[in-house]
């Protein structure tokens, strides 16, 4: 079947680039901080007014009350603890932003634009990785002070200065570390495998998996293999050629990972207790344990942003063997500060996003595991993109399968 060419306007790609970069890229987190959050808050306020002015449209959406509960859970906790943190307002208004986007772009359009932008960033970053030394030595590319080492940036590609020779060549794209980049890349792989259907399928897929591999992220490789595995055992018998490509891809990735000593060391050193890379895995494990300790004290309403963050920093500081104050378990962290309603709706959103596009019980389970890994191995609590995704997950209607030929009908605000 011939796939229809889908065209989008330039400003739509720009909006998606802002959603991806505004809170998570190093350039925006350093040069434009905190004005990036102020800008998004203003945009969210405008979207909130548009939502309020078009409540008759939103009232027709069956899942709109869930989005309201999502916002109210933040408001209730903040009122209980008199929490005046700026990010309380930010989180609520980003929900309004997500709601407005939902009625302007259906999930298929969102996914198509996202994949296009991420493929461009991935290709740019691959070229940047190959031209690593040229970027480091060229004064055209500025060095940003992002805390620990400093970062040489080409906007869509960053090099973390002060790392060892091998880590120099780990592709982190425009983000603060390779682990963050792999999350964005693998989310694009997910959309590509299960939702986005258009020409240049294999070329875009090749660019994405090359970029994932170039991050040398253990988590990234695991998630990539899970997604490819899920597609490979999907119940669709018509795409056996693509399944063959997937199997060859997994075997190639695992072969290179296992038999190249330098890459093997980088990918699997965190499982070796004598390696400094163990700090990464220990920090993630400690994040789960610390958040569970906080949740056990007040599982219903959480402690609010100010108190919850303070408790986390206090408890995590007792462990000197981890990267303190780094909270990578987004779902549990959100539970600890906003309560059980917020956490359950977040989990519901992840489940909807993971399973709506996938056939078969086992593939659904595998994809859900992959999405939970993507969303809970870095701190995405205040990421505008990942918050928008939560709203899409909450608001999406229940369907057996959605793809670009079966677009969800959306009433659009004129």
Automatic annotation (TrEMBL):
InterPro entries: O-antigen_ligase-rel_domated (IPR007016)
Keywords: Membrane, Transmembrane, Transmembrane helix
Residues in O-antigen ligase-related domain copies: 205-316
Primary location group: membrane
Keyword Transport set for record: no
Transmembrane segments: 12-31, 37-57, 64-81, 87-103, 110-131, 205-230, 242-259, 332-350, 357-374, 380-399
Pfam families reported for this sequence: Wzy_C
Annotated membrane topology: Multi-pass membrane protein
Name of the protein in its database record: O-antigen ligase-related domain-containing protein
């Amino acid at each position: 079947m011939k796939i229809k060419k889908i065209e989008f306007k330039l400003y739509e790609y720009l909006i998606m680039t802002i959603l991806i970069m505004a809170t998570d890229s190093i350039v925006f987190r350093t040069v434009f901080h905190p004005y990036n959050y102020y800008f998004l808050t203003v945009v969210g306020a405008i979207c909130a007014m548009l939502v309020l002015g078009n409540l008759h449209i939103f009232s027709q959406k069956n899942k709109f009350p869930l989005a309201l509960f999502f916002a109210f859970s933040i408001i209730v906790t903040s009122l209980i603890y008199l929490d005046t943190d700026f990010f309380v307002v930010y989180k609520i208004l980003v929900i309004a932003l997500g709601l407005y986007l939902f009625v302007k772009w259906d999930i298929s359009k969102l996914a198509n634009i996202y994949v296009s932008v991420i493929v461009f960033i991935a290709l740019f970053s691959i070229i940047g990785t190959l031209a690593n030394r040229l970027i480091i030595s060229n004064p055209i590319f500025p060095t940003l002070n992002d805390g620990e080492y400093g970062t040489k940036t080409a906007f869509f590609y960053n090099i973390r200065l002060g790392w060892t020779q091998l880590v120099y060549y780990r592709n982190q794209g425009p983000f603060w570390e390779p682990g963050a980049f792999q999350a964005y890349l693998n989310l694009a792989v997910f959309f590509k495998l299960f939702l986005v259907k258009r020409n240049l399928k294999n070329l875009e897929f090749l660019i994405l998996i090359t970029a994932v591999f170039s991050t040398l992220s253990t988590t990234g490789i695991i998630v990539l293999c899970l997604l490819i595995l899920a597609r490979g055992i999907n119940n669709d018998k018509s795409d056996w050629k693509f399944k063959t490509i997937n199997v060859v891809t997994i075997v190639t990735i695992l072969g290179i990972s296992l038999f190249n000593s330098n890459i093997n060391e980088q990918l699997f050193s965190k499982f070796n207790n004598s390696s400094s890379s163990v700090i990464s895995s220990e920090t993630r494990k400690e994040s789960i344990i610390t958040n569970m300790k906080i949740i056990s004290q007040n599982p219903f309403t959480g402690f609010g942003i100010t108190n919850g963050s303070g408790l986390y920093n206090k408890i995590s500081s007792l462990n000197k063997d981890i990267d303190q104050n780094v909270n990578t378990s987004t779902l549990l962290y959100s539970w600890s500060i906003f309560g059980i309603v917020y956490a359950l709706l977040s989990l519901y959103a992840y489940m909807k996003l993971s399973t709506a596009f996938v056939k078969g019980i086992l593939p659904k389970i595998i994809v859900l595991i992959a999405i939970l890994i993507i969303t809970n191995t870095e701190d995405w609590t205040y990421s505008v993109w990942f918050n928008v995704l939560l709203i899409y997950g909450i608001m999406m209607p229940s369907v057996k399968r959605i793809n670009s030929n079966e677009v969800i009908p959306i009433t659009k605000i004129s």
